[in-house]
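Contributing new records

If you add data, match the layout below exactly. Sequence lines come first and carry their own label; structure lines follow with theirs. Keep one chain per record. Anything else will be rejected by the validation script.
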Amino acid sequence: MATITTTTAANFIPEVWALDVIVAAESALVLAPLVYRADSQVKQKGDIIHFPQISELTVSTKTQGNEVTPSAVTESEVTVTVNTWKYVAFEVEKITQVQSQYDLRSLYTKKVGYQAAKDIDTTLAGLYSSLTSTDVGNYGVDIGDSSIISCQQRLNEVDAPQDERYFVIKPSQQAAIQKLDKFTYASAIGQFSQASPVQRGPNNRYLWGDIYGDPVYVTNQVTTTAGTPTQTHNLYFHKEAFVLALQQTPTVRHSFWHKDLSDLVTIDWIYGTNTLRSTFGVELRS
């Protein structure tokens, strides 16, 4: 007696392709909306933005009968050079478009848009090395309560405004903070019927919550340096620590190449970044 199995009947069993596709996992992109934005100042023309700095004047004691002596003022500036021009391009041959059950051009265009945002966030995260306030914490050691408090102390000491300050940390450090009893135990935070502030942030998958009044963002875009141990450069900063001038937002262009019989899609963006107030940020090491 012949037995029909899935092996012998393989030619009659179709392979089914899902209607949805699995897009590569994407890191949380958070830094661009948190820093000082100078987009409008280069939207029309220009490649360098000058930020004049106003220093404090000297307070002098007035002696009766003597003239006042004006303070000698020599000011400096911070410049942002808008010269970073990036792009991503891909090509889909016509036969592929015709035979595929997926709209590949649209799917890859969405993915390329993410790559543009990721590039800008990565550049901003790399500005940690230009901060001049004393670094906090040690490489290879998880963030603790004392490090968090020291970060806030550093910015208080340079008179950074209390509002618009942010923590940007790696997921590993989010896990480390969650292990601290004072941020999770109801007996420590005085909330028996509510979750801890660091466990429940607004409806934003990147904003985890807040610690001591400052928002905490979690992202894999935090810069790391390979070594023993791995150096993780988390950030605590005021908005004016960094500046981003996005002269051209990511722009998609599409054309049909007759010589290749294919669709060519490019997306390009132009921007510049710099440290605006170097004392207004701290590298939070872990």
